[in-house]
Amino acid sequence: METIIFHPEQDNNAIAAAAEIIRRGGLLGIPTETVYGLGADALNEDAVRRIFEAKGRPQDNPLIIHVPSADWLERYCHDVPASAYRLAEKFWPGPLTMILPRRPIVPLRTTGGLETVGVRCPDHPLTLQIIEQAGVPIAAPSGNTSGRPSPTTAGHMAEDMMGKIDGIVDGGACAVGVESTIIDLTVNPPRLLRPGGLPLEMLVDVLGDVEVDKAVKHKLSAGETAKAPGMKYRHYAPKAPVTVVTGAGIDSARHIKRHLTNRTGIICFDEYAEQFAGHIVHTLGRENDKLSHARRVFDALRTFDGTDVTEIYAQCPDESGLDLAVVNRLKKAAGFHTVESKPQIVIGLTGGSGAGKTSALRAIEKMGGCVLDCDAIYHKMLKSNSALQQELTAAFGHVFTADGTLDRQKLGNVVFADKSALERLNSIIYAYFPGELTARIDAADAPLVAIDAINLIESGVDKLCDFTVGVIAPVDVRVQRIMARDDISEEYARLRIHAQKNDDFYRTRCTVILENTATTSAAFEDYAAHELRKMIEKAKSGGYDHE
Ligand code: TXA
Ligand code: MG
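Predict the joint structure of the above. Result:
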């Protein structure tokens, strides 16, 4: 079938031709202020059947009918309550669908077998003209293939429907971007079945009490039925699995950053986009711009199909106003897979022997922070991570004894004699580190976590941190300290320090430097506590992300 794209602003006959398609029982893509619809004569069973076929939509999922004004309500509905007229007066034409008792003239095929029918008056001049000229109500679900995100441009609609329908009327990008709000007026109190382009708060203003259907915010369990049949289907879903991350934007951004891989796609607010440079990112607009979230959410969900992303993380707005609908669409796309981000700051601490890292860590512990010691974690992993053990055995031969403990001497003999073997060892171990640390950060039930790691940067663990701190001190001071601490000769102490990274390494790679020129460790601990507090405050306000 050839699908004609109509451009009414350039073509004076377009509206008449489009109305004619509806009159003779054809299928027509129509623009509305919410999303594009796949329209047909709502009173013509054959035409309505073809809507279901073209969308691949389950037959029990009812269609809503579109009328040009509240004057048509009595033709298709009976027992219309006064509240329906009050709502129409205030919000029509607009993104509100009312469920009302059906008159027999509306075929059961249209209502999916229900004795009620959803009616709405869309706020788009072209579609209103088409309905008037066709002289019949237009049944129209969203114009996507069933299960896909709803189309908000004629181009989206063409992606799904080209060759399957008679025409698409190009009326520009949809102003609202999410579907209409559905309110069931056949029950008392009225029930919100689907949040949409008209905020719940505005309905409450007119109706007083409104009950919110459970399917709006939660995944229904087996046996529960959605009052709007469409709410029970997995919906709006891109091909890659979606995780919705709730919490304040700054916290959800941080959570996503700690969990992403090279092939993670991201839906985020404008403010956080640059943190995800290098990834496929779709922004929803600024964090407080609800209109923009609604306009962009479906586009976001469509963006990732046709890319190689293997998973999608989405920052989640709060649920007020239009965002109740946005959150609902995101969560449905995720199959309600959501995680709650915590306001948790992670600091990476590194530095050479004798510089004072231990004192800085003690300062963090005294603030209630939880310290993750990478050296200890490394030894635990060697004992318990069988994948790591297998990889090491494959690379270096039988370096584990029968009971699974590492024969350090044996491994040492191999890697210390051969630089490339040491590099291989590190690259194997570093591949396991960020994943292991991410799990431990998630498990840590503290608002402040410090990662203590000599190889913080090399292992890639720095990427999990809000900021990294390099602790440095003059070489002579370090020599004196480790001589006293480890009871070794000056020569040996100097050799040890010489084998470690120099201050420049930390200065160029860490977010901040803590220089230890204090005369006692207690004095340095005080100084570190003071400086760290300032850094933590800065990180909490997003300071280190926007540098
Ligand atoms: O904004 C919109 O409402 C768009 C544009 C095209 O107008 N249309 C739209 O239609 O979103 P659709 O079919 O994708 O979603 C309509 C929803 C479905 O979840 C359906 O199950 C529910 O409305 N619905 C329709 N008639 C109903 C009824 N009588 N009782 C309960 N739910 C109903
Ligand atoms: Mg739909």
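The longest helix spans residues 419-443.
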